[in-house]
Design goal:
This protein is α/β, with parallel strands linked by helices and about 325 residues long. It folds into two domains: about 10-105 and about 220-310, Vaccinia Virus protein VP39 (Rossmann fold); about 130-215, Orthogonal Bundle (DNA polymerase, domain 1). Helices cover about 40% and strands about 15% of the residues. It is built from 14 helices and seven strands. The chain has helices at about 10-20, 35-45, 60-65, 80-90, 105-110, 135-140, 145-155, 160-175, 180-190, 205-215, 215-230, 245-255, 270-280, 290-295, and strands at about 25-30, 50-55, 70-75, 95-100, 230-240, 280-290, 305-310. It has a seven-stranded mixed β-sheet with strand order 3-2-1-4-5-7-6, sandwiched between helices. Helix 7 (about 145-155) packs across helix 8 and helix 7 (about 145-155) packs across helix 10 (about 205-215). The termini are far apart. The structure holds S-adenosylmethionine. The site of S-adenosylmethionine has 21 residues, from helix 2 and strand 2.
Length: about 325
């Protein structure tokens, strides 16, 4: 593991301020990463506070294990397992705040051995936990053109998904694609030259394959409903997402639980049903974007959106 790599936390102040940290509160950081947000929470907690962190990447957990602080613990797990983690720790319904800083860290992208980068050569892996699941190289090798094309289209909004998928398949028939720059070269050749100037031609495909390999959207969908059981009334849920696919899931979830149902005029309804309909589990608190200054200093922040909601009593 290369400790020289680092990660600048995005919207650190905004995210941690949104939690309105209570000194003896219980908090969860579901995406520990390089620990930037976790460390800030620890700074603001008193001696009776608690922070439980999670990351699916064993390298991140190794960094977390270096934190010598009795208020802190970390596990190597997917955040879709957050409910079980909270149950084991006996903190269901007691948590003051949960944060998610979705996606991959610079710590992962900049390490060419992980295969996330289309700029540096490395093994075509892309798993956030290299001990689980199937690598990008193996998946591309075993999948057919339609499967690859639909991933590129659905998770990368790639216009040339079919062309790129066919090129990947044809190349894999001759020799298995095993490195990131081999894949970049194939994508470049399959993309019309005129589309190669604005953004890197492999950016969308790499994003799509990474999202698929790590089942990133499924992970978010699975955990969100559980956060409602884990938080205590008044507890805060603060989520930073980096692209529209993630943000759409978060936004819809927050709207769904903060909107009262509308009963058509004249429809028969009991007193008990009226009470149930009135319950909104969440109150939307804010939607925050990074400042221009932050984007200048940390271009990764460019596409980030922070959404904050509060569990109703
Ligand atoms: C953007 S980074 C978080 C950076 C962190 N907030 C910091 O300040 O250093 C996202 C982290 O979440 C982890 N991650 C992404 N999806 C996950 C999931 N489903 N379960 C657990 N960890 C996940 C990644 O491994 C990565 O380390």
């Amino acid at each position: 593991m290369n400790y020289k790599l680092k990660h600048i936390p995005v919207m650190k102040k905004e995210l941690i301020d949104s939690l309105q940290i209570e000194k003896s509160g219980i908090y969860i950081d579901a995406t520990f990463g390089f620990g930037g947000h976790s460390n800030e929470i620890l700074k603001r907690l008193g001696k009776n506070g608690k922070l439980y962190s999670i990351d699916r990447d064993p390298n991140s957990v190794r960094i977390g294990n270096n934190i010598q602080d009795s208020r802190f613990s970390i596990i190597n797990e997917n955040f879709s397992q957050l409910f079980n983690y909270a149950k084991n720790k006996k903190i269901i319904g007691k948590v003051n705040g949960i944060i998610f800083d979705l996606g991959v860290s610079s710590f992962q992208i900049d390490d060419c051995n992980r295969g996330f980068s289309f700029k540096n050569d490395g093994p075509l892996d892309m798993r956030m936990n290299p001990n689980c699941g199937i690598s990008a190289a193996d998946w591309l090798f075993k999948s057919n053109v339609n499967e690859i094309s639909s991933v590129l289209k659905n998770f990368g909004e790639e216009r040339f998904s079919k062309k790129i998928a066919s090129a990947i398949k044809n190349n894999n028939k001759i020799k298995k694609i095993t490195s990131t720059l081999e894949l970049v070269d194939i994508i470049k050749k399959a993309t019309p030259i005129r589309n190669q100037f604005k953004k890197h031609p492999a950016r969308r495909s790499f994003q799509a394959i990474r999202i698929y390999i790590n089942q990133e959207l499924e992970e978010i969908k699975k955990v969100l409903e559980d956060t409602l059981k884990i938080l205590k009334p008044g507890g805060r849920l603060s989520i930073i997402s980096f692209h529209s696919l993630e943000d759409r899931i978060v936004k819809r979830f927050m709207i769904k639980h903060s909107t009262k149902a509308i009963v058509p005029y004249g429809m028969a309804i009991t007193e008990k049903q009226i009470q149930t309909l009135k319950i909104c589990k969440l109150k939307i608190i804010d939607r925050v974007l990074p400042t221009q200054n932050e984007i200048k200093n940390n271009p990764r922040a460019r596409s980030s959106i922070l959404r904050i909601a509060e569990l109703q009593g």
